[in-house]
Amino acid sequence: MATIVHGFDWPDRFVVGTVGTPGSRTFFLQARSGADLVSVAVEKEQSAALADRIDEVLDELMAEDGNPFSVPTVAPDGLADHEPLDEPVAEQFRAGAMGLGWDPSTAQIVVEAFPVLDVEAEADEDGVVEIDPPEALVVRIPVGSARAFAKRTREIVSAGRPLCPLCQTPMDPSADHVCELPDEFR
Question: Which stretch of DSSP H or E encloses residue 32?
Answer without folding.
Answer: strand 26-33
